[in-house]
Specification:
With 281 residues, the chain is of the alpha/beta class. The chain has a single domain, classed as NADP-dependent oxidoreductase domain (TIM Barrel), CATH 3.20.20. It contains ten helices and eleven strands. A seven-stranded parallel β-sheet has the order 3-4-5-8-9-10-11, with helices on one face. A two-stranded antiparallel ribbon has the order 1-2. The chain starts with 8 loop residues before the first strand and ends with a helix.
């Protein structure tokens, strides 16, 4: 199903107006999303170029680095532009490169929140997301310090990552949820039902790994459409997501200013219903 009109902004929590083409900062770290980014000055330039180009939604996480990605964002962009929304996440331990261990211990979550506030140099985190449910700890316990932080004004809105509908509803019994960040792209639509649920409920849906342009079976179709718009296959993949649902917020990441500009230009591509349908099959 596609949206009939193209709206390039979305109100997060019904309040914060966000440009739907945002920026995901995960790549601005070392190999395996671990350690410091190789070229820090270039990384700062990419972040500054994103904001200068109109991006007002940046996604990061305590686990990126870990911790180093949040500090980099503050270093590059603080004091922040008034309309800039920075989303972060907590709930993953990082023993080493490419190692991700869910930790829903309330003390760890509390430490994540306080650390993110400090590193990002903010009094309030606009959007704090639980990176993963920890199968060893009831989510009600995990989210207790998050609810406390919301009450204290340290977190404005709360989101979830890589969850099913049942988990969203379970979390909503503890506190309001405004967004879901799941793997979703032209080639991987395993969370289609979750996307439809968020659309129906007015929650933001933030696909991670949005640039994947699909299986080889789509290659010919996507290249023909890309040729028509003088675009890259990645730009067509992003344009398809923008048309798929108005509540989708895109966070493509890159270490290159040129690639950043290419990604943002996807917002100018208006696929026809026929083209959308061809790619959706």
């Amino acid at each position: 199903m596609a949206t009939s009109t193209k709206n390039l902004t979305f109100r997060l929590g019904g309040q914060l107006e966000i440009n739907r083409l945002g920026y995901g900062a995960m790549q601005l770290t070392g190999t395996g999303v671990f350690g410091e980014v190789a070229d820090r000055e270039n990384a700062k330039k990419v972040l500054q170029a994103a904001v200068a180009a109109g991006v007002n939604f940046i996604d990061t996480a305590e686990a990126y680095g870990p911790k180093l990605n949040e500090s980099l964002i503050a270093d590059a962009l603080h004091p922040y532009r008034e309309d800039l929304v920075i989303a972060t996440k907590g709930g993953f331990q990082r023993p080493g490169p490419n190692q991700w261990v869910p930790n829903g211990d309330p003390a760890f979550i509390r430490e994540n929140i306080e650390g993110s506030l400090e590193r990002l140099k903010v009094d309030t985190i606009d959007l704090w997301q639980l990176h993963r449910f920890d199968p060893k700890i009831p989510v009600e316990e995990t989210l207790a310090p998050v609810a406390e932080a919301v009450q204290a004004g340290k977190i404005r809105y709360v989101g979830l990552s890589e969850v099913n509908i049942g988990q969203i509803e379970q979390a909503q019994k503890v506190l309001p949820i405004v967004s879901v960040q799941n793997l979703y792209n032209l080639g991987n639509r395993q969370w289609e039902s979750v996307l439809d649920y968020t659309t129906e409920k007015g929650l933001a849906f933030i696909p991670w790994f949005p640039l994947a342009s699909g299986p080889d079976t789509l290659a010919e179709k996507i290249s023909k459409i890309a040729e028509k718009y003088n675009a890259t296959t990645a730009q067509i993949a992003l344009a398809w997501l923008l048309k798929r649902a108005d509540n989708i917020l895109l966070i493509p990441g890159t270490k290159s200013v040129q690639h950043l500009e290419e990604n943002l230009a996807a917002g100018k591509i208006e696929l026809t219903e026929e083209e959308f349908d061809q790619l959706s099959k």
